[in-house]
Each structure stands twice: as structure tokens, then as C-alpha cells.
Amino acid sequence: MPMAMAFAEYGGPEVLTPLEVAEPVPGPGQVRVSVRAAGVNPLDAKLRSGAMAGAWQVEMPFVPGSELAGTVDAVGDDVHDLSVGEAVMGLGAHCYAEQALADRDRVARIPEGMDVEHAAAVPVAAETAWRALETLRVGAADTLLVHGAGGVVGAMTVRFALARGARVVGTASAAAVPRVAALGAMAVTYGEGVAERVRETVPGGVDAVLDTSGADVIGESVELAGSPERVLSVVDPEAARRYGARFSSSPGDAVDHAAAGLAQAVALHRAGALHLPIHAMFPLAEAAEAHRALAAGGLSGKIVLSVS
Asked: What do you get for the CA distance between the two ends of the chain, in Å?
């Protein structure tokens, strides 16, 4: 039986323990992936801690993880364009495991030159970045402000927006400012006075704002954009509601942006314009340590579990 990391009760990272699970069987339109790497995301930790229990009930024991890279080892009915043995990355279910299922339209072939660890870092950021830009209707004539541009989702959004021809201002910690500037954004340090620094950087103002930081920036963002209509948070629903701005989360979104996001990431990789650093890697059996590293913050890139 495949091995997974699961929690049988809400709590700290220590509740993540090994569990033998039944071999998943792909349904129509699904593929089963022999997982080689799995991304670790804040949502995983929120589910584990019980912070999401009011909005998202899970059946215990629960295997977290929505991001994978590996090899197709079985296909369901109606899947004719992927074969057993092909290397894929994408969004799936219960990915802290040796095997996981994913819908065919939520996975893409891993492009040449991308290793599985970096492939596992792509899907969530790519889907979120594409969804955010589509929601904000960002085009070539726009100036986009990205809060948290030093993070994985923020950095992906910067790259995607630049590929659309937009100008991008990115806020980040002082340590991350050089990294954000290297992405091609106009980098601004966050914290007190950030709105003034943005105005100095782009005196003509910004057309749209994306918050990936959750650092209580929505009020200032609405002022910078001139209205809440094109201000979006993917992390702070309370502040978005308070200021009349928008909030988007993948499970609640009506349109699935996974395929488009993955396609854009693959195109950028092939053009040499995709850069997603790995902060740390942990074996699957050390998923609890990976969650501790996530909670510690100060990340310089993605945390990834090495599965096989």
C-alpha cells in the first residue's frame, strides 16, 4: 500500500504522521501520478491546524497537499492524450503521498530542463497568478502593484504580468528587494510609508493591485488604485470585505485557471524567464519539519517534499 503523511486530529505540525493508504483509482478524466515531489503551501498548514475547519470540513485521517510532480502511472477513462510514464506537474488531491490523483486538465507535461522539485513548486503559484491577473483584467496598458512580490505567488504574478506587457511595482522586505528587481519589477520596500514610496516610484499611479502578503495593505491599496474595483487579495478576505475590494480563492472560483496558468509557466520556462527558487526540501516522512519551516517564515522560495 502507498505511504502518505496524514493528520487524524487538528493541531501543530506534530500531528502529521505516516499512514498507509489504499491505492487510488483514477476515475473518468483523471490520472494517477507516482509522486516524486509535492509542494508545501500555507493552505496545508491551515487545514492541519483547524484554522479552516469552519469553512472546509475534512474527513480524518486527512492527507494534505494539492501540488505534485511525478510520473503518470495510470489513466482513467476519457484520457487519451497522456500516457503511463510521462512526467507531469499539476494540482491534485492528497499529494503528501507516494501516489495521488489529479484531473487531466489540471496537469501539464514537465518541460525539458525542469527538475521535479521545481516542477512541484509551479502549479499553485501559476494557477493563482493567472487567476489574479484575469480577475483584475491586467493588460499591456496597466501598471500593476503586487504586494508580497518576494514570495512565490507574488514572483510568479510579476513574471506573468510582465509577459502581458504590463508595468509592475512589487513590494517586498529589504532583503528580498534585489530579488524582486531581478524579476523585472520596480521594487519597493514594504512597511510604514509604503504608499508614499509607491507614489514616488510611479507618480502616474497604479491601475490594479494584488495582495499576496496579507500585511493589512488593502486600505492603502484602494487609495492607490483610486477605487476598490481593481484591488484583489488572495490571502485576506476580511480586509477585502472591509474595504469593498475583491477576494479570490481557487476552491471558490467559478472558473478553473489551472490549465492556463500551467501553460504560461511552461512558456516562460522555455523562454528562460521563469525563476522559482527552492527554499528547502524535506523527505516526505519529515512533512512536520516542512510545516515548521513554513511557520517560521523568512522564506526565500518554495518548500518542497521529496517523495521518491
From this structure: 15
Query: Hey, what CATH topology would domain 3-122+276-306 get?
Result: Quinone Oxidoreductase; Chain A, domain 1 (3.90.180)
Q: Which segments within 92-166 are labelled E, that is strand?
A: 99-103, 107-109, 143-147
Q: What is the pLDDT of residues 231-258, one digit of tens each?
A: 999 999 999 999 999 999 876 566 789 9
Boundaries of CATH 3.40.50.720 in the chain?
127-252
Grid-cell match 495582495, residue found: 211
Tell me the chain's radius of gyration from C-alpha atoms: 19
Strands 278-283, 231-233: pairing kind: unpaired
Fold exhibited by the domain 127-252: Rossmann fold (3.40.50)
3-state secondary structure of 81: coil
Side chain identity, residue 155: A
The vertex-224 CA angle with 249 and 182, nearest 5°, equals 75
Cell of 286: 519529515
Global pTM reads 0.96
